From TrEMBL:
This is Uncharacterized protein LHC29. The gene is LHC29. The light-harvesting complex (LHC) functions as a light receptor, it captures and delivers excitation energy to photosystems with which it is closely associated. Energy is transferred from the carotenoid and chlorophyll C (or B) to chlorophyll A and the photosynthetic reaction centers where it is used to synthesize ATP and reducing power. The keyword Cell inner membrane does not apply. Keywords: Chlorophyll, Chloroplast, Chromophore, Photosynthesis, Plastid. The keyword Chloroplast applies. GO terms for molecular function: chlorophyll binding.
Amino acid sequence: MARKIVALSLLASSASALVAPAAPAASSTALRADAKALVPDGIQAPTGYFDPMGIADKVNDKTLLWFRAAEIKHGRVAMAAFLGCVVTGVGAHFPGAVDLDGTSFASLADGDLFAAWDKMPADGKQQIVAAIGGIESVFEAQKPHYLQGGTPGKVRLTGTTAGVLEAKYDAEKLASMRNSEIANGRLAMLAMAAFVAAEVIPGSVPALTNLGFAGTYAGGLPFAPF
């Protein structure tokens, strides 16, 4: 397990830029085809503007902003998940017990990559989901909302709209950092999809099979996490 994860851990180092995109202008409900103007971040080499199914031509401004917010959220979760897989795969863990019954952190990290979640006590799973829900509630409650002129992906824990990074870097650097976050999030989403497939379906991802992913996982992920 350690060998296959170490081989992929170099990807984790790139998934570190968590910068929200610039706030778009207030959106309307009219259909529009120009997604490049509304959500320009992420349009970069090697694909450039990529919408082969023409989805942007079929939705309104608010839906495009919702898509962008969802992409940023899922990218951040995938980057955190990938890092967690790396840490678990190399055998790193907290000392001591994770609950009052004596379930050790070491026991969670022992076995298949995704078995750690299956071994997690039910109360622990609920606490993790509750924490994520709390963060999401703060994000959705911010004013202005990202569908009403706010910034998709920007989470403020205070009442101020001023950003620390905005005061530190110029516009060009901020744009580069936003593009890095989106690119790394997309890469992490693909990586986690590959991890799941390789753990569940033998031989589905040959590159990972060669690194030791046997496809023998029989737990509830990803369809029944509880």
